[in-house]
Amino acid sequence: MSTDTRAPNQETRGAIELTLAMVLSGTLGVFVIESGASPFNVVFFRCLFGTVTLGLYCLVRGFFKNHGFTARKLGLAALGGVFIVFNWAFLFESYERTSISVATVVYHTQPFYVMLLGALIFRDRLTAAKFGWLGVAFVGLVLVAGVSASDLTGGGDGAYLAGLGYALLAAVFYAVSTLITKRVTGVRPHLVALVQLVLGIFLLLPFTTLSQTRHLGADWGWLIGLGVIHTCVMYVLMYSSYQKLPTPKIAVLAFVYPAVAMLMDWAVYGHRVSLLQALGIPLIVAASLGINLGWTFRGRAAKQAAASSAATTSTATATAGATTAAAAAGETAEPKIEIKSGGTR
After folding, report:
1. Splitting the chain (345 residues) into consecutive groups of 10 residues, what average pLDDT does each group show?
2. Which helix (H) or strand (E) holds 65?
3. DSSP assigned state of 187
């Protein structure tokens, strides 16, 4: 019997919220490019306007009461913020040197770095299936990157290669932030994100050229939008949806983000991926879903054998299981969704 107590209407609402959040994520690149500001300036003002709006939201909702922070948790949130802020800067730099489509798809290889870093740092177990999906993702990444032999020997576009490097570096920084921030427990993710935004203001100030913003004019609207829409509104929708959805649905809906990003890149800038690059996209999608949902490469026969074995074991332990279940009948377990990062896209 399932222990998932989410009401169907709550799950539907969560799906709508997460879909809207991912659609907003997909328009992020257009706001960054249209602002005309340098990547570090963009991130600085995203942090500034995001701090104001998300801070007001937290104040109105009363999140500052019983916030749950300790010195250790605050330090971890801040450390994760260092990586998330520079992750944004590297991603935005990649937009300018490659395209929104290529940068977004390459950036979406984050789950694999989370897996690898988790194995290296925290000794998380890597199964054969995970290694297999990692290989699938690598093939997809090579295809999406569209790098030729001439690019690697210095005869290609150096700026494009640098852009790919920035996208990969952004993905790695995001993975590091995820591993750090997921250890901040008992604190609302909105507050974790707010700490990271506040930190970003002071962290990026030395890299920000404020004199370049004097002639932005109407383009200020794009920067304000990044703080209000792509930070405050997007985070509120995303964090609300996580509590209403099962993990598999979250993993699937996350791919609305790159799909919308590619659509916007084509609609606004006329950028299209080549056929070879397009072949790599489903490989990365499949590999990411395989990692997140625990898919294996076992055939149907192996699955049937496993099911038969499980049925036999279940029959043999039915009496003992019934006794245990009866003892625990009065307890209910509320399902929780782990939020891996305080500040995501």
Report:
1. 62 92 95 94 96 96 92 95 96 94 91 86 82 87 73 63 93 94 91 96 91 83 96 95 87 90 94 86 88 75 44 40 39 38 48
2. none
3. S
Q: How far apart are CA 339 and CA 238, in angstroms?
A: 10
Confidence at residue 148, expressed as pLDDT on a 0 to 100 scale: 58
Q: Which two tokens stand for residue 47?
A: 């942090």
Q: What is the DSSP string of 205-248?
A: GGG--GGGGTT-GGGHHHHHHHHIIIIIIHHHHHHHHHTTS-HH
Cα–Cα distance list, 198 to 39, 85, 203, 230 (Å): 18, 10, 9, 16
Nearest to 344 by CA among 229, 181, 120: 181
Alpha-carbon distance of 145 to 96, in angstroms, equals: 15
CA distance 99 to 119: 32
Contacts 24+ apart (CB under 8 A), 143-149: 143/276, 143/277, 143/279, 143/280, 143/283, 144/102, 144/105, 144/106, 144/273, 144/277, 144/280, 144/281, 144/284, 145/102, 145/106, 145/277, 145/280, 146/102, 146/274, 146/276, 146/277
Torsion of CA 315, 295, 338, 26, to 10 degrees: -150
The sign of the dihedral angle between the CA atoms of 39, 48, 57, 177 is positive
The pLDDT of residue 47: 97
Contacts of 183 (CB under 8 A, 6+ apart): 76
Please give the model's pTM, rounded to 2 decimal places. Answer: 0.80
Helix then strand then coil, % of the chain, to nearest 5: 75, 0, 25
